[in-house]
Amino acid sequence: MPFQQRELGYFDSSIILQEFLNGSSIIMKHIDRRFPAVAALKNKVIEELFPYTVQANAYLAPSDTQGVQIHADPHATLLIQCSGKKRWLVWGRAFDDTQESLLESLDLDKRVNEIAKGQPIIDEFVHEGDILYIPKGYVHTPFTSDTHSLHLTLGIQTNSESSLAYTGKSIPNDNNVSYSCKDYMLAPYFLPE
Question: What DSSP character marks residue 133?
Answer without folding.
Answer: E
